[in-house]
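U., I forgot to send this yesterday:
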Amino acid sequence: SVDCSFSRGVCDWKQDADDDFDWNPADRDRGDGYYMAVPAFVGHKRDIGRLKLLLTDLKPKTSYCLIFTYRLAGERVGKLRVYLTNKRHASVWEQDKGKDERWRTGKIEIFQGAETTNSITFESERGKGKTGEIAVDNVMLISGLCPED
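Result:
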C-alpha cells in the first residue's frame, strides 16, 4: 500500500495551474499533522479547484483501491469529485453535502487495463455557501480490490 496522506505521505501531489483556485493545507484539530482543504468562501460559485496525485508505478492489468477520508462541511458548500486520467471526462466518484459534517471514508476501485491510470484528481466545485469547507485527507492506494466495511 502507498501512503499519500499529506502530513507524511510519499506521493507526488500537484496543484492544477488551469483551475480557479488552489487547495491549501489546514491543521487538524488535535495538532497531528494537516489535511488539504478548500474554504467555502474561496472563489465564485461553480469555480473549480483541482489537486492532482501523480502515479508512476502502477502495474498494468492490476486492481487497486483508492481509500481516502473527506468532509463537506457547511450549507451549500459545493461538490467533491474524483477523476482518473483514463476516464478524463466523467468523474468516478462524486459527493455533495452529507447528513452531517463528520469525516467519511471514500473508496474507489481502480482497474488497470492495458492503459494505466497515471493520475488521480480531487476536484472541488464551489457552491453558494459562505462558510464551511471541502476537505480530503488520509489518501491511501492499496493493491487488490477494496475491502468491505
